[in-house]
Amino acid sequence: MTATVSERVSSFFTLVIPGVTNPNSTSLTSSFQLFTLDANQAVLDQQTNSIFLQATAGSLLQASLASTSQYVGDTSNNITVTFTTSNPVDANGTIKLAFPYWNPQAAGTIYSLYSYMVNTSQVVCTVTGGAPFLVQGRVPCTFKAGSTQTLTISQGVFTDLVPAGTKIIFQVARVKNPISQTPVTNIKVSTTDALGGIVDSAALRMHATMPGNITVSSVNLTTTLVQQLTQYRL
Question: What predicted TM-score, i.e. pTM, was given to this entire model?
Answer without folding.
Answer: 0.78
